[in-house]
Design goal:
The chain contains 5 helices and 7 strands; from the N terminus they run ββααββββααβα. It is of the alpha+beta class and about 140 residues long. The protein has one domain (about 15-145). The protein has a 3-stranded antiparallel β-sheet. α1 (about 40-45) crosses α2. Bound molecules: iron/sulfur cluster (SF4).
C-alpha cells in the first residue's frame, strides 16, 4: 500500500529492463561497493563450492558490520566478478544489490534519478513497467536486509 503524502516522481511507475551494459557493475564513487546480505554470502559460497568462511576470506571485506565484495589490489574499481566489461561471472548467484538495481534507496530521489541514473543506465525507460507499489516493495525489502 502506498503511503499518503506527496507523490514520488515514480508514482506512475518506471520502465526498466537490463540491457547487459555492465555499467552498474563498474565503480562510480559511492556506488562502487557491492554489499552482501548473509543469504548472498551463502548463495555465492555454494556457487563457488566454498564454505562461507572460505568465501569471505577470499572475496570479502567488512566495515561497520557490513560485508562487501573486496577489490583485489590491482583493481580498477569494477566488480571482481565482472567479465569482459559487461558480463557477470556469477549471474545466477549474483547478490541482492545487483538484482534490485536501479531501485536502490539512494537512487530514488528525483534529482539523483534524473541526473545520474536515467542518463547512466541504458535499461531505464526500456522493458516492463515497474509499478510504484512494486518499487516500494523492493525498497522496503532492502531496508530489512
Ligand atoms: S556480482 Fe555480478 S551483477 Fe553484481 S556487480 Fe558484480 S558483476 Fe555486476
Amino acid at each position: 500500500m502506498s503511503k499518503p503524502g506527496p507523490k514520488p516522481f515514480y508514482h506512475e511507475g518506471i520502465r526498466f529492463e537490463c540491457q547487459g551494459s555492465g555499467k552498474c557493475c563498474t565503480s562510480r564513487g559511492s556506488y562502487g561497493f557491492v554489499y552482501l546480505t548473509q543469504s548472498d554470502v551463502k548463495r555465492l559460497a555454494d556457487h563457488f563450492g566454498l564454505s562461507v568462511a572460505q568465501f569471505k576470506k577470499q572475496y570479502c571485506g567488512s566495515k561497520d558490520g557490513r560485508v562487501f565484495l573486496m577489490d583485489p589490489p590491482e583493481a580498477n574499481g569494477d566488480c571482481i566478478f565482472l567479465e569482459g566489461g559487461n558480463r557477470c561471472g556469477t549471474y545466477v548467484a549474483r547478490p541482492e544489490q545487483c538484482r534490485t538495481w536501479p531501485f536502490w534507496p539512494e537512487n530514488m530521489k528525483a534529482k539523483t534519478w534524473r541526473r545520474e541514473i536515467e542518463s547512466y543506465c541504458p535499461g531505464v525507460g526500456k522493458g516492463r513497467l515497474h509499478t510504484r507499489e512494486e518499487i516500494e516493495t523492493i525498497l522496503r525489502n532492502q531496508e530489512q536486509d
